[in-house]
Write a structure and sequence with these properties.
about 10% strand, elongated, 3-stranded antiparallel sheet
Length: about 180
Amino acid sequence: MRHGVKGRKLNRTASHRAATMSGLATSLFLHKHIKTTEAKAKEMRHYVEPIITRAKRSLALEGANAAASLIHARREIGKVIKDEAAIKSLFTEIAPRSKDRPGGYTRVVKLGYRHGDNAEMAIIELVDWSGTETPSAPTATAAKPRPTRNKANTAEAKLAEAEAAEEGPKKPRATRRKKAEAA
């Protein structure tokens, strides 16, 4: 029975789960939104929101202990978020924008099912962040050409064919048998 047992295991060991959450949180702080499975996104809310609250509270302090509290908060958050750029983004961009919000810093938007394994996909994004485009509001972008496995259809192959056509027809190479017969 799972009485009082919180959290999702995500089919990982405890250390792997902690590393996954740390990596996802780092990406969220750097990019302000990420696309992942719905289970990971929902579990990450419980991981990220206390971190943002801690950063926000350390910035709100004033007085003699404010600097010490800020340093302590950065070090405590640095235990779980290893990327210094993500920590800097958290303290300089995310926490100041969230100072008036009492909680609920993230939003999970369901996307549907992934093509390969039918996993439920979602986007987790920061609510107060309007500085970046979110995938939930698509914009008109040019579609990238799909990669092909056929080497004859690649741009490099077409360029090589055009250069070969400019040079003229190639002479057939002599094989060992022809060389032996000629000698």
